[in-house]
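<instruction>
Derive structure tokens from the sequence
<data>
Labelled lines for chain and fold:
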Amino acid sequence: MSNTDNRPVDPVFFERFLENQKQELALKEKELDLEREKIRAGQKADERHLLYAQQQLEATERDRKDERLYKQTLEAKTLKLFTVFIFAATLFLIFAVWKDKEQMLVEIFKIVAYGGSFGFGGYAWGRYKRDGNEEK
């Protein structure tokens, strides 16, 4: 405000100016409060997202731990079953040789060999056919 003609400033104008400044400051303070609230709300949302992510990670960890335990149990049971089967087959072979039934063992081996070759051949044929269809 330049007062080049040295007239006194109107007191009403000065009061209005001060009042406007007070209102501007109050508005800026409200804006700052709103910004602070937005920041707090954002922080709370980030905290909720972090908590959710941590819970998801813990759930995934538990699931994978359970899955590993299941696989270990399944492998152990499979190994036990295979061991029992081999033991039973060995006992049967020993018993058949002891009772002089070698011809019966030869026939059993033929059946297993033919059945195994057909089974393996059928598996390979099916696998080849499936892979051929996927390429088309």
Notes: The chain has a mean pLDDT of 86. The longest helix spans residues 11-98. The chain has two domains: 7-86, 101-136. The helical segments are 11-98, 102-135.
